[in-house]
Each structure stands twice: as C-alpha cells, then as structure tokens.
Request: fold
Amino acid sequence: MQEDQAETLHAFSPKKVKWANDLESLPPFRGVHYSNELLDAFPVHRVRWRGDHWTERRVDFQGDRFVFVDAAIDSVVLRGYLGRLPRVPANYETEVNLAVAPWISEVAWKLQAGFVLAIDYGYVRDEYYRPERTHGTLSAYAAHQREPDPLQRPAKSI
Reply:
C-alpha cells in the first residue's frame, strides 16, 4: 500500500510525505496525521449489562465452535468507563475501546503543530446508546458479506 500511496503522491517532496509503521517510530512532527477507519481497527472489550451489573463477553470454545461467554470484569479501567455509560436495558451489549485515549495522547505528544484527521464513521453518543441498539456495533465480514456473528467464521491460520 505504501508503494501505491507513494506513486500517487510522487509530486510532493519526500520531505513532505512520510510513513511510519507505528506511533513509536514516528518522530515529533509538524503537519497532518491522517487516518481512515483506524480507530475501528483497535481491539475492544465486548460487555453486557445484566440488569444489575456489567459482565465482559469473552471467547470460549464449546463443542466445535467459538462462543461468547460472560465473565467478571477484571479491569479497573474498564469498570470505571462502564460507570459513566447511560442507563441501558438488561442484556444490552456494546463494545468499549480503551485503546483510543492512550493513542490520542501519544499522537498529541508527537504533534508539534498541525492537525489530527481521524476519519471514522459511527454514531453520536445518544444514537449509539439507544435502548433498541442492543447488540453493539462489532461486526465481521466474510466473502464481502456482513457476518452477524463475528465468531462464526474465524480466519484460518496460514
């Protein structure tokens, strides 16, 4: 992909366009940090409101398939985040991305002047936590079709 991007941007000086494989290898800079759908690629915690407490949905292998099972929440950070969510109905499931805040802090530390343009499609808070949106937004795709159960067809190892 980097080669395709470099070809598209060949009119720009090499001093103006740079790639980094991760934030750690990115030197402090002035300019624009651009990403599209990057935040959706971060790992999430899948959680469920049981009516009186939250549980974390973890992956188990039962019979011949992967399934989600409820487990106690071990993370103090995750429990703190869940305490700030609006009221939702029992058995409401959602995802929590705890990696975004540290990522934003690291990008902000590297950016001396300029902009962070992180394009990501989603819902505003009131829309995201609507009572009828009971299964969160975690999704998977197989053969260019949306797969309702992200554990149904895991990728085969090479």
User: Anything to note?
Assistant: Residues 86 and 129 are 7 Å apart (CA to CA).
